[in-house]
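Each field is set out as follows.
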Amino acid sequence: MQPKGLEDEYANALRAEIAAYEWEWSPRTLYIGGGTPSAMEPALFANIFSGLPGRPWCEATIEAAPGSLTREKIDAWIAAGINRVSLGAQSFNKSELARTGRKHNAATVEHDVELLRLAGIENISLDLISGLPGQTADSWRDSVAGVLRLRVPHISVYMLEVDDDSRLGAEIILGGKRYGAFDTPSEDRIAGFYEYAVEELARNGVYRYEISNFAKPGFESPHNLKYWRREPYIGFGSDAHSFDSVRRWQNVETAQEYVRRWRGGESPRVEITTPDPVEEKFFVGLRLSEGVEPDLSDWQRFGPAFERFLSVGVMERVGNRLRLTPRGIMVSNEVFQEFLTA
C-alpha cells in the first residue's frame, strides 16, 4: 500500500475505533501524539477527532514537529479544541540536529513558537535531549539557554536511552559509527547535563514535577499526571496504550497491522495485563516530585527497602510522603526495580 493510501485507510480505522468505544466517563484531557500528527491536513484532523466527547477539555495537546506548522493548521487545531502544543525541539544546536536527521534548527523553533502565540496558543511545551551525538557541555548550555529564552511554560528534558528500537541505539549497541554513535556522551556526562538543566530551569522559575518534566507553577500537564497517578485513560490508534484503573492494554504497533485488523473486523488490542497496583504505586508514582504516601500495608511489604533507600540518601521523608532525592533520581531505574521484584 502506498503511503497516501495507508494514511487514508488509517484515518478510517482510527475514526471507527473511536466511534465504537463505549464511554463510561467523559475525558478531561486529550493528547494527540505518535508519528507526526502535525503533518495531518486540517480537514482530516477535524474529521477524525470530531467524535471525541468532553469538549472543552481542560487540556488538549498535539505533538508537532518543528517546521510543520502553518497558521491554517493551528487555526484548525484550535477549532477542534486543541489548546496546547508540544514541539519536539530536541536541541538548539544545528550540528546535533543534523546528525540525528532533523531538518529544523533553532530559528525554526523560534518561528513556530511565535506563530502559535500569534494564533492564541500560549500553553507550549518544548523538549530537549541530553546525550545526543557530539553534544558538549557548551552546546548543552546553549540549548538550555535557547529553550529558556522562548519563555514557554513547560519543558521536557530526556536523557538519551540506548535501545535497539532506534537507529542510533542499535548502532551504539553494535559498536558502529553511523548516526554519530561513536561520539555519544558517556552516561556520567549525560547525567551531568541533566543536572545542569534541573538547576538552570529552577533558577528561572521552571520546576521539576516529574523526572523528565518541568513547568512554571500552574502549567504542570494534567494529562501527563494521569499516567503517574494511575488514573484511567484510553488510547486509540496503532501502538496506543490504555488503562482502566485495573487492566492495561496495548494496540498493535504498526499502522499497517492496525489497518489490516480493521479491514478484517478484528480488535486492534494485542496485549492485556493486570498489573499489581501496589507495585505500580511506587514504580510509577515515585517519578513525581511530590512522591508517594505509603500506607501501613505498604510499610509491611516494602519497609526494608524504604529504610535502606532512606539510609543511603536516595529517598527522603516529606511529612507522610516518600520521594526520591536528587541523588535518587539519578539511580531511579535501580530504585524502581526494587518494587517489581520485592
Observations:
- Residues 163-176 have pLDDT under 50 and may be disordered.
- The first strand starts at residue 29 and ends at 32.
- The two ends are 48 Å apart (CA to CA).
- The longest helix spans residues 3-20.
